[in-house]
Write a structure and sequence with these properties.
The complex is a heterodimer of chains A (317) and B (264). Chain A is of the alpha/beta class and 317 residues long. Chain A has eight helices and 17 strands. In chain B, the strands form two sheets. A nine-stranded mixed sheet of chain B has the order 9-8-7-10-6-1-4-5-11, sandwiched between helices. In chain B, strands 2-3 form a two-stranded antiparallel sheet. The chains are: A alpha/beta (317), B alpha/beta (264).
């Protein structure tokens, strides 16, 4: 069986959940091989983490020489590992950086690239959601080694013991890959809430909050949910851009999406329409968001959400 | 300084977008326009020009690859203030994937010549893969300074703020380079009446693949490195239950619903 390369998405050696999803998908397609590019002293922890989700092999690449540079060196690393391993596919998380690595790698390997897959089945055949979620598309790579970026929540991570054999890999990085420097990096502050794109439940607020996100946040906390915002709320300065859901923000596909005080413009729908269950609270019964919902409340979120939060907390005991 | 801003003519997202029988995006029947996200790229290009010590020495060229109507996207960029336009149009291009599009753009940028900064939007509003700027950097062997929400420059030194999933970074590089900007980089200007009139006299070159030395067999649907096997309109969501809140009944009904779906 051929190797399926999975680029490990991690923060300083802490493996992020989408990596477990990619490994689960990789197992459907072949033999999962994780590629860890990071600090050498974090490798053991990463190997332990990825072999729980089926990694048979782990390529460990010490990033001392390359961590100060944007995107290009990682594409070179994957190119060189691919040349050695001859994988059947390469899977990368569909983040801004992940897609850029994939884009450069596609040109280097002269291989087809599919981004933002919400499902990958043997073939590999991918499913994507396009045109603001109004269409689904099935696609296949027809040239070279399929390179696929996969959205968070595309698969339920399944534990499965892998051998986790370590293979240290020393890449040769060109000078031209070291031209865009990471001058400074500020880790995002932990909010204590789940990460937006990974969360099972998302509660978002929009213009209707009037800038008061307290009801949205308490309701989110009662459900253990992540907090999001519409573009209107972000443009008003009520929430930073990292919270924005929609065409130019994050795309989420949680089990439950709650839109509070959000009218549901097409740009917002593009970011949440594929959520499994959609609930909205809005004062305006004509708001287009109500066309999408499984359950809607016509009412003031400032009244509805606090009592709903109390009730949820009570029921959870 | 020589700036090329890449712009795309896309189907209007507020109109009903659809596919052709060959599974390519219908770019003819659906009304199109300059991609909203590329307006931010045009804006940053114009700001780079205006902030230069000698703005007259800076040339901003709007470049597009697309069918006849795509010239509309160039015209909008010229109305906003770009100096000239280049439109690569060729029947063979229809159905091109991102690698082929980036190839045509890269060859056009080489033909324009002496380019210091290539500016792109963060994504198109139709395909929205967000990979063309990185592919251009790869093909042109230039540093990629991408997904910038704040752009600063001094001479040939560029710095951007880049908001990633887990960190905010500052990226620096020396021109020539490829820059892409997000919708946080600054509101795009509206064309002024004067700008609209002036745009009519600005040069707009039309190039074919042969002008770029690109073989027609390398681009288009048949040469794509990926194939769409099927497209399906998402079934409309069946109308859910809508209740009107009266004295707290909304909250109770909402919690009942969430409990019935086992979210609590």
């Amino acid at each position: 069986m051929s190797e399926i390369l999975v680029l490990v998405d991690h923060v300083d050696g802490a493996v992020r959940k989408p990596t477990n999803e990619l490994l689960t998908i990789a197992k459907r397609l072949g033999e999962p091989s994780a590629v860890f590019i990071g600090a050498a002293d974090k490798a053991d922890g990463v190997v332990e983490a990825v072999k729980k989700f089926g990694a048979e092999k782990v390529y460990v690449v010490d990033d001392t020489e390359i961590k100060g540079y944007l995107v290009a060196p990682k594409a070179e690393v994957l190119q060189q590992i691919a040349a050695q391993a001859g994988p059947d596919a390469i899977l990368i998380t569909s983040s801004g950086e992940g897609k850029e690595i994939a884009g450069r790698l596609a040109i280097k390997l002269e291989s087809g690239l599919i981004t933002d897959a919400v499902d990958v089945q043997p073939g590999p055949v991918t499913t994507q959601s396009v045109f603001a979620g109004n269409y689904t598309v099935q696609a296949k790579v027809t040239k070279g080694t399929p390179i696929i970026t996969v959205k968070p929540n595309a698969a339920a991570p399944e534990e499965s013991a892998g051998a986790g054999a370590i293979e240290k890999f020393s890449p040769t990085i060109s000078d031209s890959a070291k031209k865009a420097q990471i001058v400074a990096s500020q880790p995002r502050e932990a909010s204590g809430r789940p990460e937006l794109t990974e969360a099972a439940i998302v509660v978002s607020g929009g213009r209707g909050t009037g800038g008061n996100f307290e009801p949205v946040e308490s309701f989110a906390d009662s459900l253990g949910a992540a907090v999001g915002a519409s573009r209107a709320a972000v443009d008003s300065g009520w929430k930073p851009h990292a919270f924005q859901i929609g065409q130019t923000g994050k795309t989420v596909s949680p089990q439950l999406y709650v839109a509070a005080g959000i009218s549901g413009a097409i740009q917002h729908r593009a970011g949440m329409q594929t959520s499994k269950t959609i609930v909205a609270i809005n004062k305006d019964e004509e708001a287009p968001i109500f066309e999408l919902v499984d359950f809607g409340v016509v009412g003031d979120l400032h009244a509805v959400l606090p009592s709903a939060a109390d009730e949820v907390t009570k029921r959870k005991g | 300084m020589n700036i090329v801003v890449c712009v795309k003519y896309v189907p209007d997202a507020t109109a009903e977008q659809k596919f052709e029988p060959d599974n390519t995006v219908d770019r003819v029947a659906v009304p199109g326009l300059l991609s909203e996200l590329d307006e931010y790229a045009v804006e940053q290009s114009l700001q780079l020009k205006e902030k230069n010590a000698d703005p007259e020495s800076v040339q901003v060229t709007a470049l597009t690859v697309g069918p006849e109507q795509a010239a509309d996207a160039i015209r909008k960029a010229l109305q906003m203030g770009a100096d000239k336009g280049v439109h690569v149009v060729d029947d063979a291009i229809a159905g091109s994937d991102a690698p082929a599009s980036s190839k045509v753009l890269a060859e056009a940028i080489k033909k324009i010549g002496g380019v210091d900064v290539v500016v792109c939007g963060m994504a198109s509003t139709d395909g929205s893969m967000s990979v063309v700027p990185a592919m251009l950097a790869e093909r042109l062997d230039l540093p990629q300074v991408t997904l910038g929400s704040v752009v600063e420059s001094q001479g040939d030194q560029f710095r951007i703020k880049r908001d990633g999933d887990t960190a905010t970074e500052v990226i620096g590089a020396t021109a020539p380079l490829v820059l892409s900007v997000t919708d946080q980089s600054g509101e795009a200007r509206y064309p002024s009446f004067k700008g609209i009139m002036a745009a009519k006299k600005k040069p707009l070159d039309t190039w074919s693949l042969a002008d770029l030395g690109v073989d027609a067999g390398e681009v288009g649907l048949a040469a794509a490195w990926t194939a769409v096997e099927a497209t399906e309109a998402r079934p409309p969501r069946t109308a859910g239950e809508i209740v009107t809140d009266e004295d707290g009944s909304g909250a109770t009904a909402l919690v009942e619903f969430l409990a019935s779906k086992k979210f609590i």
